[in-house]
Amino acid sequence: MSARPVWVGTSWKMTKTIPQAVAYADALAAHTWPSADVVRPFVVPPATALAAVAARLGASSPVLVGAQDAHWDDAGAWTGAVSVPQVRDAGARLVEIGHSERREWFGETDRTVNLKVRAARRHGLVPLVCVGEPADVQAAGGSRDFVLGQALAAFAGLDDLTGVLLAYEPVWAIGERGRPARPDEIAGTVATLADAFAPRGARVLYGGSVDQANAADLLDVPGVDGLFVGRAAWQVEGFLALVATAAAHPR
Ligand code: PGA
């Protein structure tokens, strides 16, 4: 029995209709899961499918359901936004905050990330905070300072980070245009984050072009406590295969 379970999660980003999401959730509900001491699975559906997926899994499921974003204010005149109480109401127990796609395209800043982390804490949701440096920063050797700065800003005003998930996702490694990272390329930055935040209770996940071929090697990187996956887990078979890899991974 491991004292440190491996987290394995997937964001479906802007994919899936409600029926597609429900079919995925039904497969998760039918799955026999390893103990929570071994693996902690989570899925992050689009907002439209959040309630249906959470209902399908039920509150006692080992699979945490998350939202891809939530506003820092509890309620009010914020057209287009949903709040942490609203996503919690829909069944979310986790909220993703500060993904690089939101930082690049939706005006997310270190300040709004911090406000959202505080809102998630206030309402008892697991914050899944994403940090990651762009390619030019990596090329200039600035990865560690860059992500440390993002994470320190995200956690400003918080001491205890118990239950917080911190996903290191280099921008150059994410998505169709991304390049899978070699373990040696990320080890130093992971160590920086783990040294700074694991003693305060946070768990460090790695994300960016994670798939079956590289998952075990990435889990071998000291300080990595889990994987955050996009495309390779958009089909439930891919997700369950990664969960199995993580469960079999020596800790
Ligand atoms: P990817 O996405 O696995 O499709 O590269 C990862 C992410 O953005 O979290």
Ends apart, CA distance between termini: 10 Å
Briefly note the structural class of the backbone: alpha/beta
Contiguous low-pLDDT stretches (5 residues minimum) are none
Describe the main β-sheet briefly. 8 strands, parallel, barrel
The count of DSSP E runs of length 2 or more, i.e. the number of strands, is 8
Strand order of the largest sheet: 1-2-3-4-5-6-7-8
Shape: globular
State which percent range the strand residues make up: 15-25%
Residue share in helix:
25-40%
Radius of gyration, in Å, reads 17 Å
Arithmetic mean of pLDDT:
97
Could you say which small molecules are bound to this protein?
2-phosphoglycolic acid
* Element order: H for helix, E for strand: EHEHEHEHHEHHEHEHEH
Number of helices: 10
Draw up the topology in text.
Layout: E1 6-11, H1 18-30, E2 39-44, H2 47-57, E3 64-67, H3 84-89, E4 94-97, H4 100-105, H5 110-122, E5 126-131, H6 135-139, H7 143-154, E6 165-168, H8 183-197, E7 203-207, H9 215-219, E8 226-229, H10 236-247
Parallel strand pairs: 1-2, 1-8, 2-3, 3-4, 4-5, 5-6, 6-7, 7-8
Helix pairs in contact: 1-2, 5-7, 7-8
Bound molecules: 2-phosphoglycolic acid.
What's a concise summary of this model?
By secondary structure, the protein is of the alpha/beta class. The protein is built from ten helices and eight strands.
